[in-house]
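[Q] Does anyone have a clean structure-token version of this?
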Amino acid sequence: MPAAMLNAMLNWLLVFVPLTIALEFLHPEAHTWIFLSACLSVIPLAGILGHATEQIASRLGEGIGGLLNATFGNAAELIIAIAALQRGLYDVVKASLTGSIIGNVLLVFGLSAFCGGMKFKKQKFNQTAASAQAVLLTLASVGLIVPAAFHHLQNYGAHDRENRLGLDIAVVLLLTYVAHLVFSLYTHKTLFAGNGEAEAEHGEKPANLVRAVITLALATAAIAWISEILVGSVQEAAKSFGMTEVFVGVIVVAIIGNAAEHSTAVMAAMKNRMELSFGVAVGSSIQIALLVAPLLVILSHFIGPRPMDLAFSPAEVLAIFLAILITGQVAQDGETNWLEGAQLLAVYVILAIVFYFLPEVAKA
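[A] Here you go.
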């Protein structure tokens, strides 16, 4: 019954999709209403995307399902970032990347562990696979901390050296992500496969794979369109709400962009499919840090007004480091409960409060 009610609510929110498009073409000056409508539009589309991914996971395994959800779920963040990149809004780009990383490991994984823990006393996932992903997250934090340290320790003004440093590190991160794909999908794919016991317990009918893939592609395309509209209104909307662009990027845009991961991960956890839930939440953060961020650095040399570096602000670097640190501690034993989920959510709320009160800082 809860799942049916949730689907009904999501279907009702689909009315905001044509409303957002109509507002964009008929009243392009109504930035606040366009922003709110676009946010509400992404939620049901992300729910459809998440359901399609869950069906694919039931046919292809938890590991591939989690990877597909992370990939298609991050399409929204990538489109938002590219649209902001073309406009030269690099602070918004970096803020949305930061928000996606901490949002997935703290909010998505935390809410999944909490909701699943309220139904099941203890939920387990593969400890070795979790450890490998935790190490990747740590490596990603190193890739972001080093450019930030270089930026603040060097003599300001050497932008060419920063751009070259960012580009070189981006290539290393991309190669690391390729190695992760080989590890998780080929050499050690059994660690990420799941056990399929939870699915069998519910006696669900086998999913139509072709239909699920088509639905996945259509939902992703719709999210991409709405996300581009959302970016065009984010600056004016932030001003009208009295929020900084950093807060909107780190918290608001990231939550909306992560709606797909939210729906899939939480529903999977409530079905005791923690292998899929963990893979979606943490795998999405890995993909943002090791794939999306490096790609944006490379793309900025071609589509941006100037190259983008990897020098995140001290607040963003600290938030990423703390989020990865506590997530690694929670995941190291290969099991979760509702209290650990509550603790992850508490850290996310603390960081959100900090970013809300953090003033806009002029870039050196």
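[Q] Thanks! Anything notable?
[A] Residues 209-241 form the longest helix (33 residues).
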